[in-house]
Amino acid sequence: MKRNILVVGNGGREHAIVWKLSQSSKVGKIFVALGNGGISELATNVLIGANKINSLVDFAIKSEIDITIVGPDNSLANGIVDAFQENGLKIFGPSEYATQIESSKSFAKKMMIGENISTAQFEIFSDYQEALDYIIEQGLPIVIKANGLALGKGVYICKTIKEAETALKEIMLDQKYGDAGNEVVVEEYLEGQEVSIHAFSDGITTRLFPTTQDHKPIFVDNQGPNTGGMGIVPMPLSFEMMTEIERVVVNPIINAFQKKGKPFIGVLYPGLMITSKGIKVLEYNARLGDPETQYYMRLLKTDLIDIVEACIEGRLSEIEIEWDITPCVCVIVSSDGYPDKYKTGFPIYGIDEAEKISGVVIFHAGTSYENGELQTSGGRVLGVTAIGETIEIALNKAYEAIDLIKFNGMYYREDIGFQIIKRES
Ligand code: AMP
Ligand code: GLY
């Protein structure tokens, strides 16, 4: 029997999930709330926001949805999984409780300490002046993070006291991230190679994805404020390193939730820094990364629905997950001004031409169709993915594709993957 699927979210991650699902012979109808321009070419967009949980439950019941897959962190943090399960609906993602590993940095830090997981030294503050005094005492550089969810943007790497004051002011006094900034985590600045880890979990068994590297800051050479992510490249690690990461970073968290009787089911996504003093956890996310997922869906060979069902039904140990090992990259094209203010509503040209380049697939994030015309509607607009015989070839194809795309105020980082190419040559 074909499964009807509801995907919750409207970004490049969700477009990539839908692209992958649409290739499965086991999938029937696909609905996406809210969806976007690109998604509407493969699935039915539903006009319900990711946080309208009761409306989503009603929709899933009425539309005979067999499985719901959740993208965004805030939807998970608001308890979408618990609400669906209370209504007897199958859903893929962690519970509200387990999502705290991402939604509350203080919860995550406490769990890391409890499980002896290596992370940056830190203190938590709810008072502006106390935080500032601590920073002056500790010295610079230092990292300041809003305690709650901030769309990947509530993290400030501060090299001067002035920058630290601005960060504290934006988070705590101006409440730029709302209640997420009631507390701040001030932590040690770590240097090293950053790696994104993803692991499917059915609550007991885990299966690691290949490792990747994101490019968080908006400008070349990793300058400027952090974004949700501007580009993904492979970041291969040795088998021994992967085994170690599974043992010291992934399994302790999955086991800790299991011991509490509140299993973590879904995707656990630790962000790591490989430092000269070893592996340190920067953060845990409780979902698939974006743009990481745009990269991963290009390479996943196993039917995604088989994995999702195995996780929900607690039998992940029974399946093997296969990945294509062809080099792949994803370069994000955004609206000029993102991650701060930007304009939208500009027509987008050239996508069809760009997708004619072999190995290129373009996922949509902030796009919508207005009177039949594809327009920009968000900060991150497109994710240009490409596969090629080498990372360099894949990158060349991605940038060649970007050269064919045009919209007003188009921006992208021109140095995605430069570091890895330098390291490899
Ligand atoms: P997070 O959302 O906590 O992963 O932080 C976003 C980005 O900020 C990370 O991907 C890192 O590039 C950077 N970052 C976070 N914490 C630290 C840290 N303690 N030291 C250095 N960079 C960090
Ligand atoms: N790529 C960063 C994130 O999804 O949080």
Q: Overview of this structure, please?
A:
The structure is a single chain. 32% of the residues lie in helices and 28% in strands. It is α+β, with helices and mostly antiparallel strands. The chain has four domains: 3-96, Rossmann fold (3-Layer(aba) Sandwich), CATH 3.40.50; 121-188, ATP-grasp fold, A domain (Dna Ligase, domain 1), CATH 3.30.1490.20; 192-318, D-amino Acid Aminotransferase, Chain A, domain 1 (2-Layer Sandwich); 328-424, Alpha-Beta Complex (Glycinamide Ribonucleotide Synthetase, Chain A, domain 4). Strands 13, 16, 19, 20, 23 and 24 form a six-stranded antiparallel beta sheet that branches. The longest helix is centred in the middle third of the chain and has 21 residues, at 239-259. The mean pLDDT is 96.
